[in-house]
């Protein structure tokens, strides 16, 4: 339970019910520890003080690496003070922070996260359907799972220097491959009949010589 909030009994019962349902949901992938009600079983370190999120998601492997924290709110606890205290603290963790709120409080939760710049990996809504509770994903970060970025799209990155060098080498190789073909085409144009001034001058000289020979014979 939040240190700054005392919920009505009915809301607290609903809150703890949601926690246990989520424990069953997340235990398929994680080792899940819970802190329902006033229990303080599994803490996480945020700064110098321990905090007790409703669910602590850990790696099943030895070492129990922290992989995420989950906080469940009720209509009473979706407020500015709770967001500044708990949500902001959990968002500073290196693990993703997941927030569950009643369906009627979704807009308020999103506005608080936006105004206070709290990066939440996922925001879920829950609502009763008969005797059961249903969970709906409302918002998810568009990049990464580290709880950073507040859903903003990742900026396009410039190619790494090695990639730029490889691209330059590829362009140089293509240019080198086309040079012999260009030289061969130029040579063919120079050797083709009528292709150069020198060849044309040679033909003109031959014509002049052949036409002058009969005139010399007549003068004899």
Mean pLDDT: 78
Instruction: Indicate the proportion of strand residues.
Output: 15-25%
State the total count of DSSP E strands: 8
pLDDT < 50 stretches: 143-159, 212-220
User: In CATH terms, what is the fold-level topology of the domain at 9-140?
Assistant: Trna Endonuclease, Chain: A, domain 1
How would a crystallographer describe the biggest sheet? 6 strands, mixed
Shape: elongated
For the termini, the CA-CA separation is 133 Å
Please provide the ordered H/E string of secondary-structure elements: HEEEEEHEHEEHH
Written overview of the protein:
This protein is of the alpha/beta class. Helix content is 43%, strand content 20%. It has a domain of 132 residues: 3-Layer(aba) Sandwich (Trna Endonuclease, Chain: A, domain 1). The strands form 2 sheets. A 6-stranded mixed beta sheet has the order 1-4-5-6-7-8, sandwiched between helices. β5, α2 and β6 form a beta-alpha-beta unit. The longest helix is centred in the last third of the chain and has 31 residues.
């Amino acid at each position: 339970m939040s240190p700054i909030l005392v919920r009505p009994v009915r809301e607290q019962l609903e809150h703890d019910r949601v926690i246990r349902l989520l424990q069953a949901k997340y235990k398929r992938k994680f080792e899940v520890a819970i802190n329902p009600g006033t229990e303080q079983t599994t803490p996480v370190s945020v700064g110098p003080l321990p905090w007790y999120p409703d669910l602590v998601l850990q790696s099943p492997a030895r070492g129990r690496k922290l992989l995420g924290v989950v906080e469940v709110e009720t209509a009473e606890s979706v407020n500015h003070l709770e967001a500044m205290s708990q949500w902001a603290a959990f968002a500073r963790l290196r693990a993703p922070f997941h927030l569950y709120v009643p369906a009627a409080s979704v807009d308020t939760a999103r506005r608080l996260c936006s105004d206070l710049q709290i990066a939440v990996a996922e925001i879920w809504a829950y609502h009763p359907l008969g005797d059961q509770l249903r969970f709906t994903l409302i918002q998810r970060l568009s990049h990464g799972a580290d709880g950073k970025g507040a859903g903003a799209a990742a900026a396009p990155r410039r190619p790494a220097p090695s990639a730029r060098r490889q691209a330059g080498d590829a362009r140089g190789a293509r240019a080198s491959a086309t040079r012999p073909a260009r030289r061969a085409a130029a040579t063919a144009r120079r050797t083709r009949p009528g292709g150069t001034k020198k060849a044309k001058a040679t033909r003109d000289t031959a014509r002049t010589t052949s036409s002058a020979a009969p005139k010399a014979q007549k003068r004899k």
